[in-house]
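Fold these two proteins, one after the other.
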Amino acid sequence: MNTASSASSPTAQTRLLLVDDDRELTELLDELLTDEGYQVDIALDGHHGLHLGLTNEYQVLVIDRGLPAIEGLDLLSRLRRKAVVARALILTAQGTLADRVAGLDAGADDYLVKPFEIDELLARIRALHRRHIEAAESIPIGAGELELSRRAVLLPTGDRITLSAKEFALLRLLAARPRTVHTRAELRCTVFADTAAESIVDTYVYYLRRKLGKTIVQTVHGLGYQMGVL
């Protein structure tokens, strides 16, 4: 379990802050979220959560409402007042309408009542991550950036490589979840039309490699593709 943040995190990963005093739950979620491709930092109380939230840049926050030291909604309100814009999910045992409204007013993007199904929590976190990506101007890819408004890749050298619409859509999907292996069928349905030829994904992976280098997309034999390195 990660209980402290590292100053130098892999730029290709999405950073997630989990603030919950339930050690058993945090250990489970740490393992599951790490497998999903997130870099997870954990705080077991509100003070530690506030410190991590103010000293690191996260894309997603998962905050339990019933925290020691600083209550969850108070913690989120403090982070919002300090211009922390990460997408936030509040976990709580309090599920009345008034409680949900209070959570949203404090700056939450989503609200999940305990007890919950783990699959639902993971799906909600993925949705928040997608919303963060959609609002962002760029996605880090190694030492470079995928520039969303320009539909281009900014290389570490400062050179910029423009992508076609489908090249961009494919690379954006891979970069958003860099440790996830995507099947060809999934990529074809998501990026291309369902009626597209089965070889269309391989063709556009070839195009990306030709423009950005052979290592930009990694082949996972027998499974599909995942984000490589620039």
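Now the second one:
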Amino acid sequence: PGSNFLFLNGNLTSLPSSILQKIGSGDLLISGPQSHAPDSIFQARGGNTILRTNAGTPAAPASPASANLNVIVGPEPAKIMLNINQVFQNLTVSTSNPGPQSFDLNSPTIPGSFRSVSIYNGSKPDLWAAISSANRAGAPDPLDGIFDSGLASHPASAIGLAKVTDAHGDSHLLIRPTRIGDLNLDGVVTISDFIDLSSNFGATGPNITWQEGDLNYDNAVTISDFIDLSANFGASYSGTTLPLSDSDLALLNDFASTRSHSPIPEPSTLLLLLFPLTPLLRPRRPRSSYSYS
């Protein structure tokens, strides 16, 4: 780091409803313990902010998560990058403003490793819009929105979003990279994911996200999404595969036949479970009150 780099190694605390801002083009690294009061805000309004400690506390079976900090990227060009999983009250990435407003999950390159964000009071459509902004095919700027600079190290994977339940039994929104087709973000593509996709097949609109079966970020569940799921059926984010049962193959074949009259052929391996409409597959490119100025 050069002279334009600030390290915060001590305790970082905030008062209820207070606003902490990072301004200017310098780099800020937060590596000390964080303690945030309810409804507090951290706003990145310039430069880079690197989070090496968690702004909250994950849930445990006997205790709920501590999720008090609201994080905002923008409206000026700015970037937040993770070096550890995060627990937030909310996350807002203002992609409608000029210049890139970036939130980088920055997953490690080790197979099966990933970084995640748990959000306890967020808008699912807004978060999905920020993910889609950076990850959809033909995105004007793949750094404008929520993305993962480590995704290239994890084949056949993409960023997903789902409403899930934590260890304490509380509902929250989870963002993480996973295998394409893993709608419920458990790390593997199973018949449960297919059932969720099929129940939303043909649905469109801003409420249609990864969890509903939109695997290519176009706010619709179409045959293209089914092709992507079937190509990864049984595969996990870590690279392992599960055996394909006759009943699962029959369900996939029946769905394919009724939607396109083209059944799925018996695969020699799970990784070759490709729907005959392969030409329709879309190519995927890797994605690649304090103030400081």
